[in-house]
Design a protein that fits this description.
Layout (H helix, E strand, L loop, with lengths): L1 H11 L3 E2 L22 E5 L2 E6 L8 E6 L8 H12 L3 E5 L13 H4 L5 H17 L4 E7 L1 H11 L5 E5 L5 E2 L1 H9 L4 E6 L7 H11 L8 E6 L15 H21 L2
Parallel strand pairs: 4-5, 4-6, 6-7, 7-9, 9-10
Antiparallel strand pairs: 1-8, 2-3, 3-5
Helix pairs in contact: 5-6
This protein binds 2-acetamido-2-deoxy-beta-D-glucopyranose (4 copies).
Length: about 260
């Protein structure tokens, strides 16, 4: 009886790919940031990777950071990697955009043609494999925008230990979460923005409908940040306290999630 009542609701929800936000919809902080990145570019199994290491860290644990479409050329992304290192983790951001990050005024529609899963997955998995070979036993994966799809895949595929993503795009809701629920044992957390026009609050609620209230047994949590838009976890206008607090809040939420789920 209960199932019958639910059916009209289920058929009314259409599964859809979360659209990408055009580059013009991203705020960029001053690229000539006063703070210089502290990490280094290294080549791991043929893949350019920005690596930031804290003074002291557990070599069996690593943070894998999957950037947005602006990739390693964006200082904001490098500083975010450094922020994870400052929290005590060796942190790796592979250039899974294959040396072709989008320009600040680039066109996502034309750019994405050469950045599908077929092109993006091999460099990403090469670095994951190399980390595991190096003795990393637990990978905490964090992804932003474009990176959200790949966090979803890594979690669905049980490739990492724990995942978190902010304002994800390109994933299919609710289908990708149904698949996650069907085959994953990896906890996942989402930070979303009230003003995101891609992963909207409505899409977030569709995600909750599959995952929340204990439905996703490995662990699910979502936090919405009000008054901010897509990209808020990567870039904040330093003169806007709401943006600054949301960016820090997303970081702190992801960090707590990792601490709870890493052994
Ligand atoms: C690392 O490589 C990226 C992409 O080529 C470049 O933009 C960045 O400045 C480099 N960073 C460092 C610290 O060398
Ligand atoms: C991006 O390129 C597509 C395909 O060429 C075009 O339809 C669209 O209008 C472009 N978007 C912008 C914002 O220029
Ligand atoms: C996850 O698994 C699917 C199905 O086997 C595969 O197509 C995809 O490339 C994998 N992605 C990642 C990031 O591991
Ligand atoms: C940054 O925030 C300040 C204060 O709200 C505002 O005056 C300024 O226009 C913002 N800058 C950008 C680039 O949005």
């Amino acid at each position: 009886m209960k199932l019958l009542l639910l059916l009209p609701f289920l058929t009314a929800v259409h599964s859809a790919v979360v659209p990408a936000i055009d580059t013009s919809g991203h705020f960029h902080s001053n690229p000539l940031s006063a703070v210089a990145p502290k990490g280094k570019n290294v080549t791991i199994d043929g893949v350019l990777t920005y690596v930031s290491l804290p003074k002291k860290f557990d070599p069996t644990v690593a943070v894998l950071l999957l950037t947005d479409v602006f990739g390693l050329p964006s200082p904001d992304n490098l500083l975010l990697v450094d922020q994870w290192a400052a929290a005590g983790f060796q942190t790796f951001a592979p250039d899974y955009l294959n040396g072709d990050a989008i320009a600040i005024d680039g066109n996502v529609t034309t750019w994405i043609v050469n950045h599908g899963e077929a092109q993006t997955t091999p460099p990403l998995l090469a670095v994951v494999k190399a980390l595991k070979k190096k003795g990393v036993k637990q990978i905490a994966a964090t992804g932003y925008c474009f990176g959200g799809l790949y966090i979803t895949r890594l979690v669905q595929n049980n490739t990492v230990t724990v995942g978190t993503m902010a304002h994800p795009s390109f994933l299919n809701v609710p289908t990708d979460f149904e698949l996650m629920k069907a085959q994953s044992h990896i906890p996942i957390e989402i930070n979303n923005a009230q003003l995101d026009t891609g992963f909207t609050p409505d899409v977030a609620l569709q995600t909750d409908a599959v995952m929340a209230n204990g439905q996703y047994v490995p662990g699910y949590s979502r936090r919405q940040f009000n008054g901010v838009a897509h990209g808020f976890a990567v870039r904040a206008n330093a003169s806007d306290p709401v943006q600054v607090a949301a960016k820090q809040g997303a970081f702190d939420t992801s960090l707590s999630w990792f601490k709870v789920h890493l052994k």
